[in-house]
Amino acid sequence: MTTDNFDHTLQAFRDRSPFRPFTVVLYSGRQFEVDHPGALVQRDGVAIYIGPGGIPVVFDHEGVEHFAGDLADRSASA
To answer: Is residue 75 domain-resident?
Structure first.
């Protein structure tokens, strides 16, 4: 995934109003749900999600297979 696609898609999911949780699926097969917009920081194709219990998850544009969730009533695979 390109840096720009990663940044724009992640920002679109984070900025939805009202916010709705979404899933990040990595090429490694790992996936996790982003459950709060304030728990996510991103810049230049890299993001950090602070999960429940304060556990950080670092991911980047090269490792993300797609984002899953409804974005304008459609799946947002990137």
So the answer is: no
- Domain containing 59 equals 3-68
- Cα–Cα distance between 44 and 29 in angstroms, integer? 23
Kindly state whether residue 32 falls inside one of the protein's structural domains.
yes
pLDDT tens-digit profile of 40-59? 999 999 999 999 999 999 99
Indicate yes or no: pTM above 0.90: no
| Cβ-proximal residues to 6 (8 Å cutoff; 6+ apart), any chain | 45, 47, 60, 61, 64, 78
Instruction: Give pLDDT, residue 71.
Output: 58
CATH number, domain with residue 47: 2.30.30.100
